[in-house]
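Practice problem 4.
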């Protein structure tokens, strides 16, 4: 029996972050997506696993309107003066034949707090999988809201 797969397994990934202000909350989120470089695509939210041996790259030009698999954190606020943050973290296993883990976190707190939490979530995810962790990579975005603000951080999964 042959294996059938409707979707290719991604073999590359990269981390992105963005922030934006808008006249309405959704416009702020759209600005954050544009700032992150994924605003002209259709994001397909994925659960949080990096395929085995997936390679980190700096960036790939994505097809406009394409269906793009991502794991992401986002936070939108309409409270002027509020500090909001979103962060993403990727755990890379020591054994490249095993999958990695992606964790996302967002909150109305400074980025250093949100990013520390999401990095710990990766460490915990590896611990309960009994998997040796090689390294944690993270990226985040912080914004002090003016009118309607949004922050976004994501791991984009794609194909070579």
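Answer key:
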């Amino acid at each position: 029996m042959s294996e059938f797969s409707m979707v290719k397994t991604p073999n590359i990934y990269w981390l992105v972050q963005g922030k934006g202000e808008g006249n309405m909350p959704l416009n702020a989120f759209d600005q954050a997506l544009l700032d992150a470089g994924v605003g002209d695509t259709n994001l397909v939210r994925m659960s949080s696993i990096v395929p085995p041996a997936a390679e980190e790259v700096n960036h790939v030009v994505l097809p406009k309107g394409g269906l793009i698999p991502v794991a992401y954190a986002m936070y939108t606020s309409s409270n002027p003066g509020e500090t909001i943050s979103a962060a993403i973290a990727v755990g890379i296993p020591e054994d490249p034949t095993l999958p990695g883990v992606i964790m996302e976190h967002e909150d109305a707190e400074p980025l250093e707090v949100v990013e520390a939490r999401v990095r710990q979530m990766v460490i915990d995810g590896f611990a309960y999988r009994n998997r040796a962790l090689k390294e944690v990579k993270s990226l985040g975005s912080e914004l002090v809201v003016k009118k309607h603000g949004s922050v976004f951080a994501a791991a984009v999964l794609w194909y070579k």
